[in-house]
Amino acid sequence: MLIIPVKEGENIERALKKFKKKFDRTGVMKELRTRKQFTKPSVINRVQKLKAAYIQKIREENA
Fold it and tell me: Measured between alpha carbons, how far is 16 from 18 in angstroms, rounded to an integer?
């Protein structure tokens, strides 16, 4: 449960902005989206390897 302390006279929009930022940091929505559809571990590993190769290629080009 998220608790956002609101000071006396503080703008409600500011408190809402704090809540949204804190909620995004928890990663709840990201986890829900990943759990919505099952992905095989082999596919996850393949995507991670492709991403790592892409990042390495970009770093080598810049260096």
Answer: 5
Cα three-residue angle 35-41-44, rounded to 5 degrees? 80
Condensed to tens digits (0 to 9), the pLDDT of residues 37-62 reads 999 999 999 999 999 999 999 999 99
Helix intervals (H) in the chain? 12-26, 28-36, 41-62
Structural domain boundaries enclosing 35 = 12-62
Q: What is the pTM of this model?
A: 0.55
Query: For residue 32, is it within any domain?
Result: yes
Q: How many domains does the chain have?
A: 1
HSE-up of 46 (CA within 13 Å, CB side)? 5
